[in-house]
Design goal:
Length: 558
Amino acid sequence: MSMPPSDAEALLKFKGSLTNAVSLSSWDPSINPKPPCTANISNWVGLFCLNNRVLGLRLESMGLTGNMELESLSSMPMLRMVSLMNNTFVGPLPNIKMLPHLRSIYLSYNHFSGQIPDDAFTGMPRLRKVYLSNNEFSGKIPSSLAILPTLLVLRLDANKFQGEIPNFHHKNNLKIINFSNNNLEGPIPPTLRTFEASSFRGNPLLCGPPLTNSCQFVNPTMLVMKTLLIVIMIAFIVAIVVSILAISRLRSQKKLNEQHYSTASKFHTQASSKYVKPPPVYVKTKSLAEHYDPRSPKPDQYNHGHSKKEKGEQGKLIFLRTDGLTFDLQDLLRASAEILGSASFGSSYKAVILDGQAVVVVKSALPSVIVPHGHLKSSNILLDESFEPLLTDYALSPLINLDHAQQIIMPYKSPEYAQLGRITKKTDVWSFGILILEILTGKFPENYITSRHNSDSDLASWVNMMITEKRTSDVFDVEMGGVGTSKAELLKLLKIGLSCCEENVERRLEMKEALEQIEDLNEGQTSSSTNTDHHNFGEYSSSLVTTTNTERDAYRAV
């Protein structure tokens, strides 16, 4: 007895919507003339069969991608399970509700993104297991999930969901849930408070049991009154500022008129006398010698005769140099600043070495301070014309309010603070590693993008992902000069940066070790091989989250 043609046609149509489907070569009737199922035996890869019909699809870790069409499987009435975990699918959530008889859907560890429609799970009364973890979904959790009558397992962790958790109506059926590591907020619904606190961690704005932070409810009337009071205070302050500016403007205009009248009178009474221009202000810069160059004009050598620009040049700043060149304030403001990482690899490399040395010196000088520097980032490193770095903002962390420091100070964006709520003596090493990665990748400084550490989206994770996908050449900044002749050194320096960014504090390098490795790289630069095995970086790649025995058993049950 052969399987009806409709199932085979549906599977081939589904395969046609995929790209890189090399793993599905057995799904080709010209190569494999057998039907997909013979009784309970599968003739095509990735199928579960029962009585010559396809019961489930398990196409995991096959490198599949493309805009898959789940609608093509709607003609398979016996289909109960679809698993496409650990592939590279992108885009929005597929149209799952076109498979109303589905009982289990596994889409974890892909790159799906965007908001899920609120009715995405409408009309699926038999759906029992939903795995959407480790994707990039955003927006609110769809309310149609909360009303599924037979839902047993729900995994939404490691996404970007926002808003409040909906109230689940059939709480007695739920066995496993996980909402951790999202951007959810508000109180946890009473129907879900019997689950472990780990199911909700990683959402700073969630509150209530089983979490330890309690919810603070605001009286609506008090909130309106407080808002009204703030608006009145702002309006009062604005009125005062406008009044002060108006009075100041009137006084300035009156003074200007008086000066104009006085000047006009003097011009009529002393028409034959010469107008004496106030001397310009001379400013010493850091590069001036003790004595001016004889070629430079002295204050008493300037022509004090009348000219059309005399009035407009009163109080003008003039900067003198020993080589006879002069420039004013406008010239100084138009000068372009040196940007860390924008020069060749050699210059950037030099800056990194000296930067690391400076931090080591600070650690030796301040052994009792947990984080000697405490605010190491690219914007706190100034470069002179020879790319010699100067570190700024030493030891500011203890002087800043904790609430404000958590938003702007680098140690409070480190993995150890996100995981343990404290900083360590290796936090400066993590900041130094991020600095190395910013220089090599040319990425915008991470401390301006995120207010806290996120192991799923930080710069080190991105570099690890690129290395895992064998796209190491795409990591480096294309604007960095000299990359073509020093690729091996770049890769070694990249490895040092990743070692400094290790989330495990015990495995993270000491600052002294990082500096020694960079110095060794500098000494052996000319003799090092240019053939670098990208697989050496595999030990820095993040591993996939493994499921518990309970979840694994739930996964196996269809």
